[in-house]
């Protein structure tokens, strides 16, 4: 089971490619956009901590745009690299922590739920990284929710919250992110077990049957 928005990955990669070519013509390196995404995440965290939620939404959207553009620019310029991929994943984790930290400091979300969500997001990413590091899985981008879905839940909570001031909409959104993240971590672990154990069993059967 792939994350919902991951199914449209090929579409938005193609749609963003012209923007990648534009950035390439401007001489912008993909890693510059990755760092810019991190800067926007820090700004988003600060704005959210000050309860400037509308501007926080704007900063999160700019963060997401820069995150899309770094990949598009890497593909358009032919500068995609393993280091760039690692840098992108690392800055994504920092970005998630900054945004959640800002929500926690705002006082609108209880610290226990913010930490619950942060831990889930980190574990979902960690399971994927460890699974792919075995070299036996081309990708472990499976599960209920990827990064885009989780940011979407947060944005939904931030946008809807002003219309229901008497309800803890934003806290519910953070809890939903935490639950989705932990479910995704478990799904990725089970998927990894299925692929690795199944692969080992197949090799054993081939060996016993004398098939190369």
From TrEMBL:
According to its UniProt entry, the protein's GO biological process terms are: phospholipid biosynthetic process
Give UniProt keywords alphabetically: Membrane, Transferase, Transmembrane, Transmembrane helix
Q: Which GO terms describe its cellular component?
A: membrane
Q: Any idea which GO molecular function terms this record carries?
A: phosphotransferase activity, for other substituted phosphate groups
Q: Which residues cross the membrane?
A: 32-48, 53-74, 94-127, 148-164, 170-191
Q: Entry's Pfam families?
A: CDP-OH_P_transf (PF01066)
Can you tell me which family this protein belongs to? Belongs to the CDP-alcohol phosphatidyltransferase class-I family.
Write down what this protein is called: CDP-alcohol phosphatidyltransferase
